[in-house]
Amino acid sequence: MDSEVAPYIGMILAECCQVGLMIISKQAFSLTNMSNFVFVTYSNLLASFILLPFSYFFHRSENVPPLSLSLLGWFFLLALSGCLAQIFGYAGINYSSPTLGTAMLNLVPGLTFLLAIVFRMEKVNWKTITSQSKLIGTAVSIAGAFVATLYEGPPLLAFPATLNSYLHVLVEQSKSKWIIGGFFLGVDCVMASSWVIIQAVILAKYPAELIVVFFYCFFVAIQSGVFTLFVERDLSTWSLVPVLRLLAVLYSAVFGSALQVGLTSWCLRRKGPVFVCMFKPLGVAIAAVAGVLFFGDTLYLGSLLGVIIIILGFYSVMWGKAKEEKTGRDHKLSDLQSTTPNTPLLRHVVEA
């Protein structure tokens, strides 16, 4: 597979895994009354066991730096940001609705882009067409995601009502709880953006994605497990019966915590934090299609317009990054060609 195409395919697969996780976890929470805290603990614990042998075999031949106390501290901080993001995210959805949660999560690309600029992980030259394309594309993608989630419009395609109608009834909340939920979701967005930035820092120090993901899941399982012991006093909440709870945990561990986070980490090390976050709005488009196909959702004009706007913004950012990378490669090649005739050592080697 072309090394330039692989990160794009990887992030699309990661977003598909995320949408599938949202669908099955929503059913587990709504139909079996499963605790979201227990769900996070079990999922990350199982994922860490799955990742342990893979992280050893995949990286045993690589010259990775030795683990240090400082590096373990970074792993713990990464897990803390991810754990808090999951806790506040689930709490926000419980207080408000999945619609508000989806809309708020589309703030993550913009927040990450700003944090990447602050920490000098993303270069921005306001006068160049590539930077302008990335900035405009970021704003357009976020705007499209808000249109897809907040503007309904007339129906275009309707399917018979299914489980979706029951789920919508379950998430109806009062206005006061809606405000609290919006606050929790805002914290979730900040934590998610911080998670991406922290992981970018770790991968620069320790370029072994599977080992990083293993320690992330392991520490999240410990942190969420301790938190669950304080929140859930009823031991029956730890039960994986009915079987839907077990299936949800298995899917989350394999396709959510292990595969999705692994793909995201792999793409993050190769393309940077902004590239990874720009696929978040694309997840809204995937979720809209999945909702129509699997939940019998009605396709509204707002969803269609939002998807079109998201795609336009997405390609604007990707064009800017591709153009920027090509310019960087051309500059390196030009510098190499210009310095070659004037480098005595290199000339001596060539002549020899």
UniProtKB/TrEMBL annotation:
It is a multi-pass membrane protein. Keywords: Membrane, Transmembrane, Transmembrane helix. It holds the Pfam family EamA. Its main location: membrane. One of its GO terms (cellular component) is membrane. SUPFAM superfamilies: Multidrug resistance efflux transporter EmrE (SSF103481). InterPro entries: EamA_dom (IPR000620), EmrE-like (IPR037185), WAT1-related (IPR030184). Residues 9-148, 187-317 form the EamA domain. It is found in: Membrane. This is WAT1-related protein. It comes from Saponaria officinalis.
